[in-house]
Amino acid sequence: MAEVTRKSLTGVLKTTADLLDLLGQEAFRAQAYRSAARSLEATDSDVADLLSSAFAGVPKVGKTIATDLLAFAGTGTFAPLEDAASQVPPGVLGLFRVRGLGPKKIRALWDAGIDSLETLREACRDGRVASLKGFGAKSAASILDAVDFALAAQARQHLSTSLDISEALAGALSGLDPHSSGDAGRGLDTADTVRLTVTGCAAEVQARLAGVAEALDAWEDGPGLKGRVDGVPVEVACGPAETRGALDLVYDGSLSYVQAMQAEAAARGFELTGQGLRRGGVLVPTPTGADVARELGLALRPPEYREPEHDGLWEALPAADELVTVQDLRGLLHTHSVWSDGAATIEEMAQQTLRLGHSFLGTGDHSRAAHYANGLSIERLRAQLKEVRELQAAGLPLVTGAEVDILDDGSLDYPDDVLAELDYVVASVHSLFTLDPARQTERLIRAASHPLVTILGHPTGRLLLRRPGYAMDLDAVLAACEASGTVVEINANAYRLDLDWRHVLRWRGRLTFAINTDAHVPAGLADTRYGVAVARKAGLTPAQVVNTLEREEFLAFVSRQRAARL
DNA sequence: GCCGTTTTCGGCCCGACTGTTTTCAGTCG
């Protein structure tokens, strides 16, 4: 079997929890597996250490779960999951990906003979769902929408998943010059297949990947292999050094860009394929993509700019070496701590920020309306400010902030005099996602125009592959940000990536952005790489990203922003 | 199932919203 990862450990725990809920077991038992998964996500220890210490000291992982997880690492079988799964048809588990369906409703559907996303879609259409007890016409319609979303999403992975797998494969292929290709290589927010290119032959790739990928098979057309890692489809394309440039270009994509390049090549009497660049059937050596472009007399687009949205636009965008990088980010803003729903102290988060090479941390815990997230009352916020001042006195570079809930009417969850005590303010929506579009737009415009709001947090509320953003007039909200000088967040959490790069691309030059991790654990502070991928696809330079400023410059920026609104 | 103990078992986050009901169950953040 493939090696256990943090993701495979937390995956079996979460799936077990879902199944126990579905089987009607005591809710707290399922919750225990979920808590254990969350705890494993939050711990900083690597998987090897966790296993060798038998999970000693990991909160929420007791004797039973620790023993079962160790057995899973050895045998690939997690006993509680096997037990539960044997009682449930495999397709039923997929129903947990449908928004609005929980264990009780899924159980009701299963009892009615609906046991997969496909059969659920049919049952929504033919009226069976609407006629079930506890369901109705409105439920059936919203479930159908959610099923279509889930079916479309199931073939794709988050950028973080794709890059994790890509890097694991690259490690196994070291020496063959592995290159992250395909959607993830271009920094796209989601990817269908994880693709790599290497210099070498298929037999060597196959030998290297034994034990890393499963179900490895040679391609039928051309040199390469396909297989799966953690259930995710992977493809490795390979070839000799003299065709590597063509290989990279073709497998990097996008499809429309490659087809355009192939058409340009044909117009010049060449044939461009993954097997190389040929003229009159004779191979033209092209070790790099730049060589291909030079032979064809074309400019080579940076991989970031190869989507259809960049057509006719990319030449006016900054060159790749001018785009913002993770190293350019000085401050990590909008972060959580144990004060609300984070898993680490402010001090631990700040230390990790410095270890990653950034220069300051901005606190950003939840405000009082966020009960579920242990949001801070005004009294607790002031106590937190006192702690921050002590940490600052001890030499930690911090700025104070909060992620303040935008209330029903667009007002904020703390009064102005409290907001004014903070160095910066992120305003975010965490409630009333289904407000009618006109009211939602009005609500967000009001919040974005508030004189003390520094940054509008995760502006659309989307969760990639899970739910679309709230219905509203996004351009009207972004125009309000432009008018009031409010910074727009690029939430770097790989499950959000909100604002979407396509909107950032459209609004670049008119807005200032912040690349924020929204980290709840120290490891989450490294999510900057995903937010930076968004910014690069949108052509952003460091000057357009507010948290490339050093601490004092950032504080001065906020002062100017506030002064301009008086 | 985990935790913290009154060391043997009770408590584990909860308010708001939605669509279904006919007073509330289920889901979400």
Structure, described:
By secondary structure, the protein is of the alpha/beta class. It folds into three domains: 1-88, Orthogonal Bundle (DNA polymerase, domain 1); 158-297, Beta Polymerase, domain 2, CATH 3.30.460; 322-564, TIM Barrel (Alpha-Beta Barrel). 43% of the residues lie in helices and 14% in strands. The strands form five sheets. A six-stranded parallel beta sheet has the order 13-15-16-17-18-19. Strands 2-4-7-6-5 form a five-stranded mixed beta sheet, with helices on both faces. Strand 16 (424-428), helix 20 and strand 17 form a beta-alpha-beta unit. Helix 1 (6-22) packs antiparallel against helix 2 (27-42) and helix 1 (6-22) crosses helix 7 (103-111). The longest helix is centred in the N-terminal third of the chain and has 17 residues, at 6-22. It is globular and about 75 Å long. The N and C termini lie far apart (63 Å). The structure holds one DNA strand of 29 nucleotides. It holds the Pfam family PHP. InterPro entries: DNA-dir_DNA_pol_X (IPR002054), DNA_pol_lamdba_lyase_dom_sf (IPR027421), DNA_Pol_thumb_sf (IPR037160), HHH_MUS81 (IPR010996), NT_sf (IPR043519), PHP_dom (IPR004013), PHP_phosphatase (IPR050243), Pol/His_phosphatase_N (IPR003141).
Question: Can you give me a brief rundown of this structure?
Answer:
Residues 331-408 form the Polymerase/histidinol phosphatase N-terminal domain. This protein is α/β, with parallel strands linked by helices and 566 residues long.
